[in-house]
């Protein structure tokens, strides 16, 4: 969100229009916020957390599409190759949630389930993960503006920190950004929650 401020504004506009500014979004709002849904999908597509899923090995000889795969071969599902396949995702390096909408403006059926792996070993936590990611994104977008940090002359500091792979998971390297409440009302809602939870 630090980099894609136009996407951020579009999602915030949808939240303000559908949910209003008197409360934060809840999971009940999920079906009514298609752009936020598309934003979650695009985040998981553009930089998958597990770009090679989790390694497995074959327990017997197999043939897949004419390739002989001996017993004991390590097999990796190449999630990155799928999520950056340019025949499915035009200009796949571009971050653009609108790619998940059909021409009639409806969300398409590409729910990014492959980001959670494949077959009977597919991630059992995927529904919890999807709900948690959606809710966190929706509430953060409702409450805060996320922008680039400024230098001493007030100019945006470019974001160049990139990503690292630790073990099998990808994560952003530490970076500076500016996170500010969107309004006094948003700030009050955040404070209300903090007080309530303690
Ligand atoms: C962004 C969040 C998450 C992503 C992207 C993710 C992704 C994945 C992937 C790609 C696999 C490997 C599937 C395969 O081998 O084909 C996996 C396995 C697994 N995940 Fe997740 N996961 C997430 C969150 C969670 C959560 C929240 C839980 C638990 C509450 C969880 C529990 C597991 C377990 C137990 C496995 C191993 C399943 C098995 O080998 O049978 N994951 N996950």
TrEMBL record:
Molecular function (Gene Ontology), one example = iron ion binding
Q: Part of which pathway?
A: Secondary metabolite biosynthesis
Pfam families the UniProt entry points to: p450 (PF00067)
Against PANTHER family, the record matches this protein to:
P450, PUTATIVE (EUROFUNG)-RELATED, P450, PUTATIVE (EUROFUNG)-RELATED-RELATED
Q: Which Gene3D superfamilies match?
A: Cytochrome P450
Cofactor(s) for this protein? heme
| Keywords, alphabetical | Heme, Iron, Metal-binding, Monooxygenase, Oxidoreductase
Q: Which residues bind heme?
A: 123
Q: What InterPro entries does the record point to? A: Cyt_P450, Cyt_P450_CS, Cyt_P450_E_grp-I, Cyt_P450_sf, Cytochrome_P450_fung
The family annotation for this protein states: Belongs to the cytochrome P450 family.
- Name used for this protein in its record: Cytochrome P450
Q: Which domain of life is it from?
A: Eukaryota
């Amino acid at each position: 969100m630090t980099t894609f401020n136009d996407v951020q504004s579009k999602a915030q506009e949808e939240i303000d229009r559908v949910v209003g500014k008197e409360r934060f979004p809840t999971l009940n709002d999920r079906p009514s916020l298609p752009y936020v849904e598309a934003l979650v999908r695009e985040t998981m597509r553009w930089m998958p957390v597990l770009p090679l899923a989790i390694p497995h090995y074959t327990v017997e000889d197999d043939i897949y599409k004419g390739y002989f795969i001996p017993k004991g071969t390590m097999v990796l599902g190449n999630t990155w190759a799928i999520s950056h396949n340019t025949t499915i995702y035009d200009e796949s390096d571009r971050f653009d949630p609108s790619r998940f909408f059909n021409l009639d403006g409806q969300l398409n059926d590409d729910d990014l389930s492959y980001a959670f792996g494949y077959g009977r070993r597919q991630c059992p936590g995927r529904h919890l993960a999807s709900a948690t990611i959606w809710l966190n994104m929706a509430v953060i977008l409702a409450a805060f503006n996320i922008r680039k940090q400024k230098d001493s002359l007030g100019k945006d500091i470019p974001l160049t920190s990139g990503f690292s792979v630790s073990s099998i998971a990808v994560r952003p390297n530490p970076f500076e950004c500016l996170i500010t409440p969107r309004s006094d009302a948003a700030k009050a809602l955040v404070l209300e929650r903090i007080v309530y939870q303690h």
